[in-house]
Each structure stands twice: as structure tokens, then as C-alpha cells.
Amino acid sequence: MKRKQLGFPDHFLWGGATAANQCEGAHLEDGRGLGHIDLVPQGSERWNVMSGTLDSLQQKPNTYYPSMKGIDFYHHYKEDIALFAEMGFKVFRMSIDWARIFPLGIDEKPNEKGLQFYEDVFNELHLYGIEPLVTMTHYDIPLELVKRYNGWESRETIECFKKYVKTILTRYKGMVKYWLTFNEINCITSLPYYAAGVVIRSEEERLQQIYTAVHHELVASAWAVKIAHEIDKNNMVGCMLAAGVTYPYRCAPEDVWLAHASGRGKFFFSDVLVRGEYPEYKLKEFERIGFDIPFFKEDKEVLKNHTVDFISFSYYSSQLVCADQNVIAEKAEGNVFPTLRNPYLKEKDTAWKWQIDALGLRTTLNQFYERYQKPLFIAENGVGGIDTLENGRVHDEYHIHYLREHIKAMKDAITLDGVDLMGYTSWGCIDLVSASTGQMKKRYGYIYVDADDLGQGSYQRYKKDSFEWYKKVIATNGEDLD
Question: CA-CA distance, 181 to 306, in Å (whole number)?
């Protein structure tokens, strides 16, 4: 029996990912309004602001706000897209800044200059045969909606969002086929201000506020799917989650259950968005904590009848949990979700000490596909490190090593496990402001941007060693990873 040579499908979408609030800059240019993300500072207060425990609704003196400047993609987009095309990108994941379209969020009419900017970007992408994959909101909300309604805690924000979604889907009909609704929607539970514009009033109200915002975003996501399909039946709309398999620290049943419950906590969001209703385990949890889901008349119908076409997620590393607080286990660094250090994982010497677990990506892909049987898309994957520019070159072997191992895991999931994977957009294909730290020195990209943590520099772009490597990967459809 002759074995068939297996690999990535011919139509696989290779590319890279960015977010408007981390790269665009030009924060008040051409009619754009302030977004809540603009006032998330760099420094010691950043995490408290992101988690909603510290109010940041006014600009403070002697404080640097990195999203205001980003990497100035607003003025460099043609140059940057040309570099993406040189690597051979088939798809570019980006987001639309809501405040660039509706500066206050409550505006009667959209900002034409903002609409035109994204049309110009899409035209530039199509010039090189690159498909846009567009996130409708990637951690950005017009600041005025936070001041008036406390972001997604209010149902009023749903109505503002529906108007925004209808506007962009109408304007870009035929220009954009692939859409994502909310970036890493499950991060609301950990970072309610950053992900949903919710300032926590008190610890007693915390869960009530968070899960009210969660419900509103879930309903808004379903409305976005409905609107997208009504405007253009060819639109494909996905959800987006922060993902990663959770392991038990021991084979003790308590640890196994804790790992299961932890993973289920992330799947809750996709359970609703893919299956169209709240799962029983979450309803029981809400019953225990005394939370009544703020259902309105249409909510159940729109959730049930307008589920997503595909599932996208970010994967950086896996998590490890232990039920016994007396077990001594070192905590590991991560993006959002807390984790113990896994003694079975080796890590490269990166400044942020992330644990590298490529096999965990294969496991995560299988978990999603076995649970839902829906097409999958890896919308973020990468590792941040400190890169040094020397004579116009950056040697970033650690990037190549990380990405190589994860692409191998993707291939195994496709060819050995039968996972339906549409595409892959590695995170921060060009260096940009880090979401977690607000720094520039935490670099993920194939392209080095000459800017420091305080936004000082020439902003000139330089190709890293990983640029040529990824170009080869795409050209060979994932076959040549050396």
C-alpha cells in the first residue's frame, strides 16, 4: 500500500497578525476619537488599570500612553504591507479601531476619513493578493462609551456596536470576507477594563459586573454574525478566544478535575458562540453565585440562530494547575492566565521566561475540533523577546525555533489528526506595542521597528533573520522549516 504524502492544504492561509491599538498610532488624527485603550498607561499602574481596579478615564501628566503612538502603521501601512507581500502573506489579520469610525461611539454619522483609511488599507492588501482578516474590536472601545455606560456593562453599548458593525460591513462589502467579532473574548474575566471597558466599583460587585459585560458581548457577537450574513452571504465570521490546554500538576483526581474545570472556563465562551446557548455547567455556576443573566426578549433567539462560521484562537503556551495549596510549585510567567511552572517543559532564554509547549498547540487544536467540528484558525501565536539591531540586521533564532516547533505541531494536527485548520497568523508579524507590558522591547515580529519603550526612534523598518525564514515557509507551504 502506497502512503499518501500529507501536508498543509493548498489553500492554507499563511500570514501574520496585528491590532490597531498596538500599531496604528495617529490617535487624534483625521477625526479619530479617544479610545479607552489610549489611556492604559505603561508602567506600574498598567495591570491595575487593565484589571479594572484603577480608574484611568483622564490623561495624567508625566505618564506615557503607548497606544497613542504605536508603531505609526497609520502612516507606514504601504511600506509594511509591501514587506508582508515580500514574505508571501496570503492573509493579514488586523483590526478596525472603533473610535476611528465613530469617535464618540454615539455619533449620528461615521467619520469618513476613518472609513477611507481602512478602505485604502484593504485596497493595498488586495493589490498584493492578500486577504484581510478583520477583527471588529480588538480591545478598543470609544472612551465616551466607557464614561457614559461603563463599557460593555451597559446594554446601550450593544446598540452602538450594532450601528458600528453595520457601517463597516456595508462599506467593506466585497473587500473583506473573513471577520472576527471580539478579540480574546474570554479575557473579560481577568481583564475587564482592558477587554470590555468595565471599571470595577467594588469587589462585591465584581462578578456581577463582569458577567453582565460577558453576556452583552456574547449577544453583540451574535448580532454581528446576523448582520454580516444579511449584508453579504459570502462573509465568514469567527469568534476569537485566548486558548491553551490546561494540565493537572499531579495525577490526583482533584488536580485532574481542576484542570478540566479550568479548561471548561475558557470553552464556555465558544460553547455559547458555536452552540448558541448557555451550557448547563455555567448555568449551575451562576445559580450558585446568585447571578441572573440579563436576558432581553431577543437574546436567546439571536444567540441560537446566529452562531459563528469558524473558531479562531490565540495560543502562546499551556497552563498547569494544582488543587493542593500545600504543594510547592513555582509560578510561571504568562500573558493573562495564571499558571504553575511545568517541570517537563524546556524553555528558551527569553526575557519573559515563557514556557514553550508546541505539543500543547496540537492538543488545543484537537480539543476545539473534537468539541465543535468547526473549521479552526490560529489567529495569534508567537513569543516575545529582546532583539538587538546590529548593522541593519537582527538575529532572532529564538523566534524561528518557537515558530518552527509550533508549525510542526499544526501540521501533525492536520495530517495525523484530521483537524480542519484554515490558516495561521503569527502574532506581531511586525514589532508593535506589547499588550501585557505596553513595551516595545518585547518583540514578536519578523520586522524590527526602530522605536523604544517611550516611543523614541526613527521608526525605520528592518528585516530580521526570521523574515527570510518565514518567507521560505510560506513559499513551500510549510514543508521547508529549516
Answer: 13
| Cell, residue 307 | 452562531
CA dihedral 309, 313, 318, 324 (to 10 degrees): -70
Q: Grid coordinates in use for 68? A: 497613542
pLDDT band at residue 103, thresholds of 50, 70 and 90? very high
Segment 452-478 shows an average pLDDT of 98
Which run of H or of E encompasses 78? helix 73-87
Reduced to 3 states (helix: H, G, I; strand: E, B; else coil), residue 251 is coil
- What does the pLDDT read at residue 350? 62
Nearest Cα to Cα of residue 239 among 186, 310, 139: 310
Task: Please name the amino acid found at residue 458.
Answer: S
C-alpha–C-alpha distance, residues 90 and 13, integer Å: 5
Which among 203, 206, 172 is positioned nearest to 192, based on CA atoms? 206
What residues have CB less than 8 Å from 99, skipping those under 6 apart? Answer: 32, 33, 34, 35, 105, 140, 141, 142, 143
**In the annotation, is 285 catalytic?**
no
CA gap 144, 60 in Å, rounded: 17
The pLDDT tens digits for 216-249 are 999 999 999 999 999 999 999 999 999 999 999 9
3-state class (DSSP) for residue 332: strand
* pTM of the predicted model as reported, rounded to 2 decimal places: 0.96
Catalytic, 277? Answer no
Q: Which among 380, 390, 405, 468 is annotated as catalytic?
A: 380
Q: Which domains does the chain have, with CATH numbers?
A: 13-475 (3.20.20.80)
Q: How far are the Cα atoms of 11, 87, 234, 474 from residue 176, in angstroms, in the given order?
A: 17, 21, 10, 22
Q: Which three cell numbers stand for residue 230?
A: 444579511
Give 151's DSSP letter: G
| Residue among 124, 144, 184, 217 flagged as catalytic | 184
SS3 276: coil
Q: Please work out, in degrees rounded to the nearest 5, the angle formed at the alpha carbon of residue 280 by the alpha carbons of 275 and 286.
A: 115
Quote the mean pLDDT of the chain. Answer: 95
Report the pLDDT value the prediction gives residue 355, as an integer from 0 to 100.
Answer: 84
Question: Residue 26, exposed/middle/buried by CB under 10 A (0-12, 13-18, 19+)?
Answer: middle
Alpha-carbon distance 246 to 134, whole Å?
Answer: 29
